Amino acid sequence: MSNTLLLDRPAARVPHLRAVSPIAAAPAASEQVDAAPAAPARHLPPNTAPRGFALYVGIDEEKAAAAGVSLGVLVEALRRTLGELAPTAETYATVALAPTGAGGRDVDVVRLALHEPSAVARTKNEPEPEDRVEGGVVVDISRKRVLIDGESAAFTFKEFELLQYLVLREGRTIERTELVSSLWQGATDDEAPGERTIDVHVRRLRAKLGRYEDIVRTVRGIGYRFDRHADVVIRYGHGTPSPDRF
Questions:
Q1: Helix, strand, or coil (residue 107)
Q2: Rounded (5°) CA angle 202-195-201
């Protein structure tokens, strides 16, 4: 999956495609009523500063064609939009090439094909780890299980989903409303738990973690979070879901 193809020329324009609508000019300062809130500060490694970003787009030519576009057209549309918003920005686009029929979510295949570090780290060929460990918690995402001091813990499906959701978003405080909307997608109002019911699920989860219960932290008045912990080992596997970064 390591091959990439540079998109240096826009794809031929197809008659039935719609032109990208121009972005409306920003209102004058006197007309602005509510300014957008500033992005929260992110913890950065020492002596580093953001220099740009990568946007991984998961879509193949067949899906693009069904939407009436092509990958080249999408790239040029994004470049035009960026050019209007930030004329001095530099861009570089590649197409991720993967074997025909490669399974998994499109965006995960793209991240792996383009060697995105966290995607590569999760799929490195490593010897099968021993089930028994001397101590600590093993969150085995590939096998959907939790080992505590070498023994398999009897987590319910929802309890594991809750722990996995926090682990995959390490370092980010997750609000109760997000946990409900993400872990009970498609549920009716009667089926979805209330925010306080999440607290009950967390209490049961912590009870099963025993002396390691503090790996799931409470952020008072907001929700819960998981931070990297010396007693916790996380095992990733192929097809691990991508955490939301922003």
A1: helix
A2: 20
Report yes or no: 107 and 244 within 8 Å, Cβ to Cβ. Answer: no
Query: Residue 246 carries which side chain, given as an amino acid letter?
Result: F
Structure token pair of residue 93: 């686009």
Residue appearing with tokens 């719609």 = 18
**Cα(244)–Cα(246) distance, rounded to whole angstroms?**
6
Q: Do residues 51 and 103 lie in contact, with contact meaning Cβ atoms separated by under 8 Å?
A: no
| Closest residue by Cα to residue 75 from 90, 91, 63 | 91
pLDDT tens-place string over residues 30-48: 444 455 555 545 566 677 7
pTM over 0.90: no
User: Mind listing the pLDDT tens digit for each residue in 175-195?
Assistant: 888 888 888 776 666 666 677
What distance in Å separates the CA atoms of residue 134 and residue 184, rounded to the nearest whole number? 35
